[in-house]
Structures are given as structure tokens and as C-alpha cells.
Write a structure and sequence with these properties.
Blueprint lengths: L5 E5 L5 H9 L4 E2 L12 H4 L3 H9 L7 E5 L2 H4 L1 H10 L6 E6 L2 H14 L7 H12 L3 H6 L8 H11 L5 E5 H6 L1 H9 L1
Amino acid sequence: IMLPNFFVVGAQKSGTTSLHEYLRAHPQIYLPEQKETKFFVNDKIFAKGMEYYERQFFGDWSGEPVVGEVDPDYMYFEHGLTRIVENLDLESLKFIFLFRNPVDRAFSHYLMTYRRGLESLSFEDALAAEPDRISQSWSNRMHYSYFDRGLYAKQLHHFMKVVKLSNMHFMLSDRLASNPEDELARCLD
């Protein structure tokens, strides 16, 4: 069994699902079928241990030289990076960041939450209520962080403190959408 040597860490609603599918199609890349394992950010799943992580998500690895995971919550929730650093070889890890215009990202996040039946407020009211909501619980921070997740510099700061710049790759969702072949080629390089 092999553990990841790269992570696509976000941002949420920025094209990570498309990137997951593009990377999964590559014959030399292994990604778990399940996008967003939440292993490093969900306390209950993380408590099951690294052996569980390996078995559950990488148990059917068949020798691909590049192994990864796609989970945008690893960029947003700081303890995700802390747990990655504590449990994997940071020097050998690559991190891929995918960014979208923060306003478009926030509205897309709102629509997803609304469609799931978790949001009853208007977009404007949800933004006004966000600071109070996300301060209440991890679950609220997961669902109602429309504005907060768009503060990319704040989230990147945590990575910049511990990850070498040469181990980070930055992408823009509009470029991935308009020219996936070239953007994917850059990512693979």
C-alpha cells in the first residue's frame, strides 16, 4: 500500500472535481475513487488511524508511481495541514492549489448548500450571518463559510510556513475550464 505523495487541497467550488477526474484518468496516477476523504480534517475519521487511511483509501493501489488525494477542506481547515505534516513526509509531498474568483466561489458554495437543504437564508442574509454561524461549530464552518473560504492568502499562509514553494503548484479554475489540456500539462510537470 502506498500513501499520497501529492494533495489537491482546494479551493472548494473551484474545479477540484474536474481536476480529480482528469488526474484519475492518467495511467501513472492513483487517486482514491472517493474524492474528499476528509481523513485529515474529520476528527472521527482521523481517530481511526493511518493504517485505516491506507487500507480504506489506498488499498487497491496497483503500483502507480504518483499517488494523491483531492480534498479542498485541507486548505481551509488548518488542522488538516498540521495532521498531514505530523503523519507524512512533508519533504516529498506536492500540493496543488486551485483558485476561483472568490465572489463566484462564494455564490456557488451558497447554491450547493441551498440545494442540499441546509440553507434557508438569502445569499445576502447568509453572508451577514456567516461570522456568527461559523464561530459556533466545525459543521457550521464546513457549510456556511461562503466568504471565509475565499480568503485565500490567509489559508495559504499556513502552507507557506511549512511547505517549500517548489512543492506547491497554483492553478486558476477559469484557465482549467478554458484550456484543460495545457493546464493539466503544467500541473503534471
